[in-house]
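[audit] Reproducing an earlier prediction to check determinism. Same input, same settings, fresh worker. If the tokens differ from the archived copy the diff job will pick it up downstream; this log only records the rerun itself.
[audit] input (101 residues):
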Amino acid sequence: MSDSITPRQFTHSDGVADWQADDGSARAVFRTGSFAAGARFVDAIAEIADLVNHHPDVDLRYSTVTVRTSSHDAGGLTTRDVDLARRISDAAAELELPAQD
């Protein structure tokens, strides 16, 4: 049984308003304001990823963290990506890191 979903299904899922989906992945950019805040957020993402055994690509810059998720084994987006995106957005909200428009 496949848990593959379309970008549209991803976008219309609850809790992923911070994210934009395309054909093969979903991406969100969070404004951190500082490198240290970004590093704390990356640490939180790593804990989440290990917990759910689904690991995104993370790009840490001075004032932003960009996160991209996809399910390589499925060749695109799956319900696992929705779950991961929700958890990452929740962590960002807890750390008061807004998503970039």
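[audit] rerun output stored. Observation attached for the diff report: The longest helix spans residues 35-52.
[audit] end
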